[in-house]
Every structure is written in C-alpha cells, then in structure tokens.
Amino acid sequence: MPIIPDNTPNELIDFAGVTSLPINIEITERLTYGNVALGTYRHRPHNGTLIGTTQYAVLINEGSPFELEWRQEGSAEIRHTRIGTGDIQIHPGDRLVYKHWQRPSRMLFFAVDREFVRHVFHDVFNGQCKEVTPHIGIRDPVITGMATAWRDELRQHGAGGRVQAEALATTLVVHLLRTYGDANADVHLLSGGMNDARLRRVARYIEEHLAEDISLMVLAQVAELSIHHFKEVFKVETGKAPHQYLIERRVHHSKEMLLGTDMPIVQIALAVGFSGQSHLTFNFHKLTGTTPMKFRLAGKLGLIRRHRPR
After folding, report:
1. Which residues contact 62 (CB under 8 A, 6 or more apart)?
2. Which alpha helices (DSSP H) does the chain contain, by range?
3. Which of 27, 43, 107, 111 would staple 57 via disulfide (CB 3.0–4.6 Å)?
4. Which residues pair with 52 in a beta bridge?
5. Domain limits of the chain?
6. How far is the C-alpha of 80 from the C-alpha of 43, rounded, in Å?
7. What is the dihedral of CA 245, 250, 252, 255, to 10 degrees?
C-alpha cells in the first residue's frame, strides 16, 4: 500500500475566487452570485496532496477519463478509481481527501457557500440529516440532469441572475442532504402556501428593490416561507419561477424607461437591476423578440404606444 508522507501539503480550493487556487487548477469560466459559484476549470497532473474545498462543491468530469488515486480523511485505505467522462465528485467543504492523478482533464463545478447550506438544512429539514461525506467517481442521474441548467447559465453568461443561481443551489443542496447525508426525514415544508397576502408582499418588495442584487433567500423571508417551499409554491401560484418573474418585471420597467426617457441603454440596464447592457439585451430579446435599441426606435417612430406602468 502506498504511504502518504506526514508532510503532505493541504490545499483548499475556493471556487468563488476569494483566495488563490492551487497551481495545478485553472478556472476557464466562472459565474459568482453571493453564495453560489459555477463554472469550469482545467486541472493538470498532480503528484499527490490532501485536497478540500471551502464550499460544498460538486464536480463533473467533462474531459478525458483519468485514473485517480485517493483516500478519505481518517481512512487508511487508498482507492484507485477511473474517473470517466460524466463521473461526479462531491466535496462537502473542508473535508480533506488525498488525491493523486497523472492526466489532465476538464471539470464542470457548482459550489455553494457552507452558510447557505446550513440555512437550507435548518430551514428545510427537521435536524435529522447527518454530515455529507465526500463521494468520488459516482454516477447520479439527478445531478447530471441539474448540470444541464448549470451549463445553460454559463452559456447565457448568467442570464438568470442571482435568484436563478440560488434556486439551482437550493435544489442541489436538498438533493445532496437527502441522498448523501442520510436525511431520514422528508423535506419539511412550512404550513401555508403562496396566498394573496404573501404574493403581494413579494411583488411589492421586488418593485421597490428592482435595481438591487435581489436574493432568493430574502424573497423567501419576505414571504415567510422556507427557500425550498417558496421556490416551489411561487411557481405553482404564478406559473413562473421566481427568477423568470423578476426578469419579466425588469424588462417591463426597461420598456417604460426606453420609451419615456433619453437615458442611455446601459444606464437603464443598471437602473432595473441587470448587470449591464448585454444582460438586458439578452433577456429583452428573449421576451420581446427585439432589442432595446430597436424597441426605442420603434417608439420614436410612433409604432409603439407607451402604457401606464403596472
């Protein structure tokens, strides 16, 4: 059995980019929204180290298969696993795993801040969920399905924004805790659905804070529901996911400003909560079939009548 030296270095990977990454890892794409980071990275061969992550992280191999020699923290057993394309690794944060590999590859990652995970744990479960342990080289069709939405967000440069990212994170965390954390209890939902009073509170909050970086967690608190419950019942009651509703309201207000002001489009984008003009243009075109510039021009030509704000 190979011997791991006592002086083997420890490396913690911070996917949010606050601290520097190990020299063998190169981030190629990354979106960061508060508690959530997703992206891709390349890793070069590594002679062996104890590796952990500062967030709860799920890694999916999107490159060539490679052989991984690894050992769980506190275990004497060294395992040899072939990490094929599509194979998944789960790191629950600050749990070190010895890893040694000799071939480069490319990984998709989704990382969630541990404080957000704790919030979901206390909000959704009844305290009957054990700590998630690292899992290496597994297949999980649920996570594989989730990864489609992660790739869409990367391809669309984060079009869904923070609310969408936190919704994806909530779904992932609930799955991780239930599937890999021995969560014996069913998901605990607070009593009551998205009644008219709660809907009005959420809608009013969105209108009053449209230009801000609105969080799904805050919207759930406004509705006095758990994050998981809010995400589910909001769509049932409105027919739209929270991030879709938020984007529609931002596009609606941008239309009013395009027709009623001479503000530059980039300033309008920021005023209604988009990250920039390209972010506005993408979502505007997706909902209306045209661009903000063409919409404004049509208004000046009298082809569009301005409506009173809703």
Report:
1. 40, 85, 86, 105, 106, 107, 108
2. 114-124, 141-155, 161-180, 196-208, 216-223, 227-238, 242-260, 265-271, 277-288, 292-300
3. 111
4. 12
5. 10-180, 196-239, 250-300
6. 18
7. -160
Q: CA 101: distance to chain centroid?
A: 28
Q: Which of 216, 222, 217, 231 is nearest to 197 (CA)?
A: 222
Q: What pLDDT, in 10s, does the model give residues 219-245?
A: 999 999 888 889 889 998 999 999 999
Whether 250-300 and 10-180 are alike in CATH topology: the answer is no
Which region, left, alpha or beta, applies to residue 116 given φ > 0 means left and ψ of -120 to 50 means alpha?
alpha
pTM for the model: 0.86
What would the CATH number be for the domain defined by 10-180?
Answer: 2.60.120.10
- Classify domain 250-300 by CATH number: 1.10.10.60
Q: Exposure pattern of 217-243 as b/e (b: 16+ CB <10 Å)? A: bbbbebbebbbbbbbbbbbeeeeebbb
- For the stretch 121-152, pLDDT in tens is 887 776 666 678 899 999 999 999 999 999 99
